[in-house]
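Hi D.,

Good news: the full-assembly prediction came through. Inputs first.
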Amino acid sequence: MLDRRELGAIFAGGFVGAVARAALAKALTHGPAEWPWATFTVNVLGAFLLGYFATRLQERLPLSSYRRPFLGTGICGALTTFSTMQVELLKMIDGGHWGLVFGYAAASMTAGFAAVFVATNLVRRAKVAA
Amino acid sequence: MSDVLLWLGVGFLGGCGAIARFLVDAIVSTRAAGRFPTGTFVVNLTGTVVLGVLTGLTLSGDALLLAGTAVIGSYTTFSTWLFETHRLAEDNERLLASANIVLSLVLGVAAAALGRAIAGI
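Then the structure:
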């Protein structure tokens, strides 16, 4: 049942997303008492891009087998990360930086949700206007 | 390790992480009932336990970049988590949307701590 070309599209997107995220993580390092800009940036950017691509692919463009796996599952999925964020939160808790813990968690949720919301509505508004 | 080879490794392992996420999500989702995004939830928590283990083993440098940032970073996802939460909220499934955020955050930190404790045994 596995579609090899679909897996290939996911692999190619994952390659691109992981390199972009890792490059930013190497460029912007931070201590446990500092805001994790690298993770925060890729997560919010990736949420915006997924909101945009997924809404367009589901509601606007003709059905395509490989755009969603490449752009959504591959690039956006791999560009963003859940695990790194949780380990960052754990290290902030270790250091007793509670303001940073709640600020980082709340800002990631708010900005990530807003990014999906804005991207989704950008696509839908363009659809009405067309 | 040369830089080009290292970054090719990051990309290759990142691609493998993305495929693993797709497969685990598909396997879990076909077995889970209801609208809660169990597939992404399971992917994110299992990946966080593994990253916790790697953190507990105090990997650093290129080893952490390849095993942690590349593989596990790509395996787990923030964008799909928030996208699915937004779609739940849009469909007035506010309880499920809130649960997806709160449970993922609380159990996510717990999963990272669990992984680190496993590495310390």
